[in-house]
Amino acid sequence: MSKDPSHPNIVLILADNLGWGELGCYGGGALRGAPTPRIDDFSTEGLLLHNFNVESDCVPTRSALMTGRHPIRTGCRQSVPAGFPQGLTAWEKTLPECLKQRGYATAHHGKWHLGDIPGRYPSDRGFDEWFGIPRTTDESQFTSAVGFDAEVAELPYIMKGIAGQDSENVCVYDLDKRRLIDEMLVDKSKDWLSRQAAAEVPFFLYHPLVHLHFPTLPHPDFERTTGNGEFADSMAEMDYRVGQLLDHIDDIGVRENTVVIFASDNGPEFRPPYRGTAGPWSGTYHTAMEGSLRVPFIIRWPGKVPKNVTSNETVHVTDIFTTILAMTGAEKPLDRPIDGIDQTKFLQNPASERSERDGFLFYIKDELRAVKWKHWKLHLVWEPKVNQSSGKLESPYLFNIMRDPKEETDILAYNTWVLQPMMRLRANFEKSLKNDPAPPDPLKNM
Questions:
Q1: Which residues form the Sulfatase N-terminal domain (predicted)?
Q2: Residue 45 carries which DSSP code?
Q3: What is the pLDDT of residues 257-277, one digit of tens each?
Q4: Total structural domains in the chain?
Q5: Per the domain annotation, does 396 fall within a domain?
Q6: Calpha distance 125→148 (Å, rounded)
Q7: What pLDDT shows up at residue 446?
């Protein structure tokens, strides 16, 4: 472990499909049928962001987190089925690869979803070791599905790997293992953290949870504990698992020099019966609504980030890459555009510092859907619910999302001045794309 303040340990916990409105500290918790006391307490130990923004679904957000680059640049534009090309190209420089150059030990325990072939597993991309699933968790339903044929469809596996060695299958990922996997992941992370506490090196743990991705099924120990169904039981388990990691950080004596970040990869699921909530915001993931963009984010850094503070300043998932590198003194890649902005000053002094970011462009796949600038949101394509798109808009819709969080009243006619900074933001980004062409979409012409 590291006790050197210039080499803080980093623990990054990422929930899956956790909507803005699910946790107690974001207005949910007991109101959603499952109190979340551990994460709620954790939120009082640091800074909680109300305006943390991500990409449209699992793969784009995870690629942005690992590279500090918008997925339109990396080619990781969408989640794709098993058996199709997917993941980060070898050219991309990942967060753990950058941290390794700074002397960090690195581990990944959880859902990867950025490559499922040799050369693209976590242990090939900067992690010393990994354990989890290479793609996503709805695959746990495969072997129980009517008519499933293992000769034409890939079996899903829980896997493990060590850098410099071939990754290997551990067991088939089925519905029984779906209920057990978050417990397995916590056990792996606790063991790895204990080993790092005995070493003289700083560490980076990336722990992408499986909860609350569908099928949202709790561990047997949590079944029927809330009385409000399996989704609520799973939320209670997720809160408990996060608490286990936080307790272990305390138990091994590394709390004071460890940055702990908890966030979600995207907004809530839209499919019943696993549909979640984004609280006051409209929409789910796979849309450009605020309910897709905004997700929970909490950071604790003892002595550096103030306790029990909230902020509505805009932060983007790409910023986490750049900010972690700045916190640790690691160098960011200089041979490519990096979209993430260093937010360290803001995070350490949110009362008087402003976010370094005014806005960003929001793509779904390769289509620019919306532009967000300060408290304004411009929709170029209108799809308030998944599969209910009206296509490109002749006249875009403009919303003030502070005054109109549901994005219900278009006010462009009264505020055309806002188009100036938004179109400037768009022009500058698109100019940079011309000098940094993205890899082709492998599914576009299929």
A1: 8-329
A2: T
A3: 999 999 999 999 999 999 999
A4: 2
A5: yes
A6: 32
A7: 45
